[in-house]
Amino acid sequence: MGTVAAKLLPDNPVKALQTSGHIRDGAYPCLVLNADYQPLSYFPLSLWSWQDAIKAVFLERVNVVDHYDQFVHGASAKMRVPSVIALREYVAQNRAPAFTRFNLFLRDGFACAYCGSDKDLTFDHVKPRRLGGKTNWENIVAACTACNFKKGGRTPKGAH
């Protein structure tokens, strides 16, 4: 369970629930949206187990947006297993996305910034490291191997 789930849900489990069929571990994951209906995170995608989702529903911490056809049964209640829930209170997202190769390619649409190719992608320092360029979101772009090699240790302007 993620840190947001740990803060929203106390340790006491939802008791006396039975399902209308066997549910294996990891089945019926539930997408968790913030109060603005945006995922809490994209990579990894914010997912809770169906048990945590139902617990949050009973604690009135979330609204059910959509559900599976699968039911769970309690002593006095029957409900469908949630597939998408939205938090009732907004959780501030004050962190930048992780700087990873995948996230960089995702930002750049899996295409070379110089020619648009989607083949043999690497990442390129727009301002080369030898000229003091940093490895950060502002200075790195996706580049195919051919364009990266052609540009070399120069700025894009100096390469043409």
UniProtKB/TrEMBL annotation:
CDD domains named among the record's database cross-references: HNHc
Alphabetized Pfam families for the sequence: HNH_5
Coiled coil location: none
Keywords: Endonuclease, Hydrolase, Nuclease
SMART domains: HNHc
Span of domain HNH nuclease: 99-149
InterPro entries reported in the protein's UniProt record: HNH_5, HNH_nuc, NA-targeting_endonuclease
GO-annotated molecular function: endonuclease activity
Domain of life of the native organism: Bacteria
PANTHER family named among the record's database cross-references: OS07G0170200 PROTEIN, SLL1193 PROTEIN
Full protein name: HNH endonuclease
Organism name: Hellea balneolensis
